[in-house]
Protein: Neutral zinc metallopeptidase
Amino acid sequence: MRWEKGRRSDNVEDRRGQSPAYAAAGAAPALLRFLPMLLRSNIGRLLLLGGVLLIFGGKLLGVDVLGLFLGAPGGGEPQPASFSAEEQRLAGFVSVVLADTEDTWHAIFRQQGQVYREPTLVLFSGRVNSACGMASSAVGPFYCPADQQLYIDLAFFRDLGQRHGAPGDFAQAYVVAHEVGHHVQTLLGISRQVRRAGAGRSQAEVNALSVRQELQADCFAGLWGHAANVDRKLLDPGDLEEALTAASAIGDDRLQREAGRQVVPDSFTHGSSAQRVRWFRVGFEGGSLADCDTFAARPL
Structure:
C-alpha cells in the first residue's frame, strides 16, 4: 500500500504510555456533552454534588484529588513514553489511513446531501478509558458511539499477523476502516435503529442483528478500499488479498475453532469468515453505499 506520502489526520489522540486514569481526562470533553442529561436526573445531580464535595474536601485536607484521579502526582503531566521506530511507523500509518477514510466519507456524504463528521482515533497501550467504559487490549480495536472515537492498541497488528496469520499494511488498514464504518453507522442512525430493533428480543436475535451490523461495517471498509484503489491509486498488487485474509481470520467460526470450541452460528456476533470476506468484496468491487444494505440481504 502506497501510504508514506499521504496526508496525516488531525484527529489522532495518542494516549500510549499514559495510565488509564490519566487517559480518562482525554474523554472529558466528550463526556461533558452528557452533563445536561445528568442534571435532569436526581441520581446524576447527587453524583455531581458528591464529586464536587470530594474535590473541595480534598483541597481542605491538602490532598489533590484530581491529581490522584488523573494518575499524575501533584496534578503534573505524565512523562512522555518513548517508542520504537516500528511503533512510530505504525502510528503514522494509521494516521494516514484515517485521513484517507475522511476524504472518502466526506465525498460519499456529499453525494447523499449530508455532512460527514470526522471521528477521533485514540492510540492506547494496555488499557483505556472511554465513554463506553474501561477496556483492555484483549478486546481488540473498537469504536465507542458515546464519544464517537475509535480506540486501537497498535499491538493488535502484531497479533493480527503472527497469531491470526494476516500480515500486511492493507490488512491493518482494513481494521481501521472497519471501525470507521461503525462511526458511519452512528452518523446515519443505523446503530440506533439496531439497538431499538434488539430491545426485548432473544439473545440469538440480538446476535443476528449484530452480525448484520458488523458485516455492513466490513462493506463500508470495502467502500473505502474501492476509493483508495480507484480514486487515489494507493493499492499495490496483493493488497486486496491481505484484507480478505484478515477478514477471514477474524470470522466467528474460525475464532471459535481456534479456541477449541464448537462452532455455534447462533452465538456469532460478527459473522463467519466467508460472510466477512463476501461483504468486504461487495463494498470493494461495487463502490456504492446502496450495495451495503446487509439488513435487507437474504441470505447473508
